[in-house]
Structures are given as C-alpha cells and as structure tokens.
Amino acid sequence: MFWPSSAQASTFMPVQASKIAMHVDSLYEFLLWASLISCVLVIGGFILFSIKYKRKSESDRTPYISHNNLLEFLWSFIPFVVFMVVFAWGFFVYREMRTMPQDGLEILVEGQKWNWTFYYKSGKISAGELWVPENTPIKLVMTSKDVIHSFYLPAFRNKQDVVPGRYTALTFNAEKKGDYQVFCTEYCGDQHSAMLAKLHVVTREEFDRWLANDPYKGLSLTEIGQKVYGSRCAMCHSQSDVKMVGPGWKGLYGSSRTFVSGDPVAKVDENYIRESILNPNAKVVVGFGPASAMPTFAGQLSEQEIMAIIELIKGLK
Amino acid sequence: MGTAIVDKNKNYLNEKSGLWSWLTTLDHKRIGIMYMIAVMFFFLLGGIFAMLIRAELFKVGPTLFTSPQYNQVMTLHGAIMVFMVIIPGIPAFLGNFFLPIQLGAKDVAFPRINLLSWYCLIVGAAVVFWSLLHHGVDTGWTFYTPYSISTSNGTTWVVAGAFIIGFSSILTGLNFIATVHKLRAPGMNFWRMPLFVWALYSTAILQVLATPVLGITLLLLVAERVMGIGIFDAKLGGDPVLFQHFFWFYSHPAVYIMILPAMGVVSELIATFSRKTIFGYKAIALSSVGIAAVSFFVWGHHMFVSGQSEVAGIIFSFLTMLVGVPTAIKVFNWVATIYKGSVRFDTPMLYALGFLFLFTIGGVTGIILATIATDVHFHDTYFVVAHFHYVMVGGTLMAIMGGIYYWIPKMFGRMYNEYWARITFVLIFVGFNVTFFPQFVLGALGMPRRYFDYLPVYEPLNRISSVGAWTIGVGFLIGLFVIIQAIFKGEKAPENPWGGKTLEWQTASPPPHENFHNQPVVTAGPYEYR
Ligand SMILES: [Cu+2]
Ligand SMILES: [Cu+2]
Fold this sequence. Notes:
The complex is a heterodimer of chains A (317) and B (530).
Chain A: H1 19-52, H2 69-98, E1 105-112, E2 115-119, E3 125-127, E4 129-133, E5 137-144, E6 149-153, E7 158-162, E8 168-173, E9 178-184, E10 197-202, H3 204-212, H4 221-233, E11 256-257, E12 266-267, H5 270-278, H6 303-315
Parallel strand pairs in A: 1-5, 4-10
Antiparallel strand pairs in A: 1-2, 2-3, 5-8, 6-7, 6-9, 9-10, 11-12
Chain B: H1 19-23, H2 28-56, H3 67-103, H4 111-130, H5 147-150, H6 154-182, H7 195-227, H8 240-274, H9 281-294, H10 310-338, H11 347-370, H12 372-378, H13 382-412, H14 418-444, H15 459-489
The structure holds copper (II) ion (2 copies).
The site of one copper (II) ion has 7 residues of chain A, from loops.
C-alpha cells in the first residue's frame, strides 16, 4: 500500500507524519471552511436571486439601483481582513517549516535524471532510499546534476526545488515510524513520473545498524548488479532487447557498436561498459545522439558496484 | 433617425466576396471573424490533445503513448490553449468585432496593424506546428530552463512561434488603447463606456507592457539554445531560476490577459439578461484597472519553492492576497446586479451563471494557493491543475461561449438553436465539474502534475476525471455544430433580440461596413434600463 498503516490518511489528505503537517492541515481546514462559506454565499446568492427574479413578462421593469458605497466597502473590507488573516497564518506556519535546525542530521541529496542519491556524512551512499531516525531534526542539503527537480514529501506537506548550480535546503522531523513516498514535482522529462524514492523512518538503533551495515553482504556479484540496476538504471535500460531511453542490455556484451561521432566500431567489453557508466558522452551509440541522455555515475557507484553491473550485463545473453 | 439613403441589404459580410477580399480586409469585423475561425481551429486541436491526455491517464501504466509522446501531447495542449486560444480568444475575436461598435466608431485606430496582428498569430502558429517535424517539444508550456536548453530541437521552433504570436497580442493591445482614447463617438466619455470596453482597455495595457518581457525572455532562450550564451544554464554559470522570474513576470499578468476580457463579457451578459442597470459600474470598471496594476507584482507566487528567498516568497504571498480584493468586488457586484432584476435564462446567461459558479470556486482555491504554507504542499500537484482550469476554462472559456451565443445574432444576423445550445451548456458544465473537481482531491493527496503515470491509489479519481473530460468533449463538438448551423441556416435575427442597451444593439444585424448608417451620439450610460 502507498500510505503506511502506521498512520491514518484521511480521505482528502495524505497521512500526517510531522507536527508541521498538522499545522498546515489546520490552516487548510480553515481555508476550506472559509471557501465553502464564500461559495455558498455567492453561488447560493445568485441562484436564489435569479430564480426569485425570473422574468415574468417581456414588459417587466426593474428598479434603477446604480451603486451602494457601504456595500462596496463591506465586500472589499471583509474579504481583505480574511485574506490578511490567512496570509499571516500562512506566514507563521511557513516560518516554522523553513527554520533550519542547528544540530540536525544533515544529508546531501542529489537529483539527476531520473533518480535520487543520498549521501550521508559517514560516507554511505544510498540510491532511491532515504533512511532517517525518528524524532530527529533532519536537514536535506540538495542540488541537481542536470535539470531542475523538486523533492516532495506529501506526508510532511513539504517540498523544495532542487536546482543545478546551487544548494537548496529542506528540513523535517519525522514523528512516526513508517515508509513514506517521495515524488519529483518539477517536470524533468521522459521519466519524470518515475523519479520516485522512499523515505524510511526508523528507530535510532535501526538507523545506526543500517548506516553501519554493508547492504551487499552475502550477495553474489550478479545479485548486487540487480540491486544497482533496480535503483539506478531501470528507468532507462531494459534487460531485454526493448529500447527505452537507452538501449536494452540483452546480448549487449560482445556485440559491435557504431557511434554517432563516427568513431570506429567497437566491441562491447568490460572497459567499454565501464566507460559508458563513468563517461557516457565519450561514445554515444547511433540512434541515441547527438548528446547522450545518460548522466555520468562517476563518484556515485563504487568499484564493486561497477563490477557487479558488468557481471550482470555479461549474463544477459 | 437620419435621412441618408442607405441600402439596408448591404452589410459587412456581403459587401465584397471572395477569399482574397477576406485575407486583405481592413474591416475590424471581418478580422474578428478570421480570428474566430483561427481560434476555433486551434481550440479543436488543443481539445483533441486534452482528450488524449485523459485517455492516457485513464488507468495506471502506459495506455496509449510512450512517456516522451505523452510529454509532447501535454506540452502542445498547454501551449496551444494558452497562446493560441485563451489569450487571443476574447480580445482579438470578440473584442475586435465589438470594441469599435460599442464605442460608436467606424473601425479600430490602425486597421492595417489590426490585419498584421492576425497574420502574426497565423505565422506564429505555423512555426509552432513546424516544430512537430523536428522531434516536437516536450518542455511543458512554461519552457523552464535548463530542461528547455538541453531538450529536442523542436523547442527552438515553438519558442520562436510563441515569440511571433506575442507580437499579435502587443499589436492588438496597442490598437485598442488608441481606439479607446481617440475614436469614441460624440458624447461617449469614459464613464459611458460599456464594461466590456473597460475590461479590454485594462487588458490592452497588460498586453503592451508585459508581452515584450516574454518576447525578450524567449529570445534569450533561443540565444541560449543556439549560441550557448550562458544566462540561464548553470553549466555555463547562468541561473536557471532567473528564467522563471522573467517568464512569470509576463505570465502572471497574462493570466489576467486571459480573465479580464472574460469578466467584461460576463458584465454585459448579466446586465442584459437581468435587464437591469449594472450594480457598481465604477467599482467594476476600476477593479479591472486595479487588477491589471497589482498583477505586475505577484509573479513570485509561482516560485514559492523554487529557491527564491523566503522573504521574497512572503512578500509575494501578501501581494497576491491583494489581487483577491478587486476580484471579490466584481463577483459581489454581479450578484447584486441580478438582485431585483428580470432574469431570462437564454444560453448566454446560462454561460454567465456557469462562469460565476466555476470562477468562484477557482477564486477561493486561488487564495488557498496564495497562502504560502499551504502552497508548499499544493504547488505542482493536480490541485494547481484543477485551480487554473476552473479559472481558465470555467472562467474564460465559459465567457467566450456565452459571448459567442450572445453576439451570433449581431455578427451573422441569425439566431442559434436555443434547445441544442442549452444541451451543450449542460454537458460542458456538468462534464467540467466531473473532470476537474476530483483533481483538487488528487492534488491534495499529493499527485504531482505532468505525470505520465501515477501510483495506483490515484486511479479511481483519475477515471472519474477522464469520463468527465469526454463529456466536455462531446459538449463542445455538439456546440460547434450548433454554431455552424446558426451561421449558415439560422433564422433571421432582429436588430436587438435581447433588449441590450449598448451601441452594438442600435445598428443593423449584421452591421454595415461602416458599423452605423448614421453616426451615433451618446447621451446616457451603457446600462440605462429604467
Ligand atoms: Cu521530475
Ligand atoms: Cu500567477
């Protein structure tokens, strides 16, 4: 299920995973009531009038009422006061939302087409899965490698654009353990709607264990390859010969490739795959040019992961 | 009346004939009709794309398209509807036809420029469609950098097309300002101008002041793509968010370029069909000007989470609240006009009431989005999609439809079929709410916009929405036939079928080439139903 069972989603809003989400919802609820009352007044008003004053005969005459200054004042001033109230209320909640913690846990977030990478200070790198301890102020420092993305946590009522060439920040404090959805909410092309991630809120102990843990312990190289593939490559490459954003991988190893640049035909071997991962624009395959849509994974994948991917591709005959 | 001998059978339609006489005409009425044909054609295209979008989103997973195809369809729907339908829809079509007549003028101030502006729209549109031959365009109608710098070559063409279309808008605005200032009939002072003219006048100011900013921005974008000058591209040291500032500096006022003329139409409809003096004439007229002025200072409300400074966000939230006030004034004045009126429910009035209904919902949800803390959650979700469709379609398109039915007797001298026209209204109105109301809920539940595919929890509401969209589609198709039938086969219309008081109802249907057989002299306000 999308919404975790640990917290209840209402019919009209996602689960509330933090105090700020609650504050946003109270303001939203006030806005909804105010909206409903205004709609009933206006819509009810004109429906009532137009039925009551339906034309009886073509010789009907109507009174000459040109204006009324008191009414004009009231129906400008009362909405103005309401608008100022919601503005001020919004301001206070927003300030709370945007006040960065002094001593929180900082995590670096990098967006790129079309996945999220999370860098922890311990050196741990995680793709598509953000693990945080509960009841701890978290500060995400975010940037993008290519185009603008946006990091959206519906359960926390919070989002922030992730912009190339600068850092933006987002903070939250999860009060309830559980798994929460992350969306990309700034259109970023082809697989925008697949640029998802999961936020796992766990206890401090579980978090520390996860941080220290080697996720690949006991796995074969191909199994590791499958894991990396799932979180990093699956939105662009299939393991069959189906062409997606990039070429399918079936039968890739050992085949001959021709390039947009007119470079000599090359046979796919370990070095070719390695170069494709670390420097995709060096050799762009015909049919996918002129520039490669593939981002570089230099610095994001460990040597072990690169070898695992190579092993995986080798096995796809 | 005057004594001049006139041929009552001659009018602007039959005075000359042949395609060439239309393509080279300087008559504002004929140019208005040419805009009508162009805009209806673009609307049909944009509408087909809308139907395809809803078909794709009917169920989870790929349905009709691959994601790159979907992104192109979504972009074309937005770009066509905004730049070629909603923006020129009322001013260039209905405004061109009726602004001079309502002022008692023979034509606009610069008839040749008027024709030129039509050709700008057509050439611009052709350039936009040309892009389809160059891998299309998949940026969304907002062309955000740096995505728009790196994506397919079609983008350059679409951006160039939008640039050319911008000139159409600027020239029309210029023409209207000059016409209002210089060509009013004797006795027609500013406080006797119909509210439709006031609305077009405020719009024209926006068109002239804001559109050049879009032009410059689009030129910079083309320069960025073609020459890599590095203003917006972070790789070259540029700032991608700067583009958003430039873009919304135009595109927020453009929102009012789209809605102010609609408000003008609705003022006319409500006064005529309530047969009552409009309530708060000056308040409605000046609130148009007020909206136009404030609208230049609120663009940052599109950028609350873009990385602009928090202080800027808060100021923009405050200023946006201020636009709500003149908007509320208008709505209340319309309702007060109906009070003690003598209301007839002909199709144009149904559309005016439909406008009031939908626009009110669009307006209050606008306040929810202007509130900065709630916007952080709703920004770039379907809540925003629902909101602006309530305002643009529920508002502007309803007003265009109402205006067309209202003025068909004048423009073509023929009546439409009331029965079928009402059926189309019901289909469009009901279909509209079924389509877009669920999208508010989808957005509140967190479904982002511009998504080719979505999580399974969102499926039921998306299905309802798609069914609603097809209902609207059927409604508009029947509506198209009703209009065509009226133009060619409708019953002969009298000069003043609705009992309107503004000047266009004091001349023949259809009007003669020079609009009036005798120069009208104005001695009273536009809505004197005493
Ligand atoms: Cu995205
Ligand atoms: Cu805006």
